[in-house]
Amino acid sequence: MTRYYITQKETDIRKTRNKLDEHKVRQVRYERKKEKSKRRLTALDKKETWSLEKKAKVRKVLDKVYMSSDEEGADGGLVSQPPSWESDTFQKVKEILDSKYLDICSTRSKSLLLKRTRGVKKNKDTPDVPEDSKWLIQA
């Protein structure tokens, strides 16, 4: 019950500072990235042709920080805007995992997923990545 009142207080503060809409947009982006990461991790677990080493290497970088943001498109779907620092290898891995997720997904679940199209690359600062994960950064 206390969480409800804290949330109401935070909402009131955001309203007075005119930050409520900005917060909602930020939360939507966060949730989309979180879901995208979760779907790809599920697909990675089901990927039987990859070695355990490759799965471990990919699992390290399937974090929300490295996911591209999705914006609402004109056709009701989502437009994925990959970051400018993303390597071709990382892009290919994500495509494979997305395809695998659609393969293991039920027909009903597929119908609930929004259609995604690939948009133009978005200029973003390169994130800090561990030395063994430099393969996801474009050279």
TrEMBL record:
Alphabetized UniProt keyword annotations: Coiled coil
Renumbered residue ranges of the record's region Disordered: 118-139
Residue ranges the record marks as coiled coil: 6-47
Domain of life of the organism encoding this protein: Eukaryota
Segments of skewed composition (Basic and acidic residues): 122-139
The name this protein goes by in its record: Uncharacterized protein
Species this chain originates from: Sinanodonta woodiana
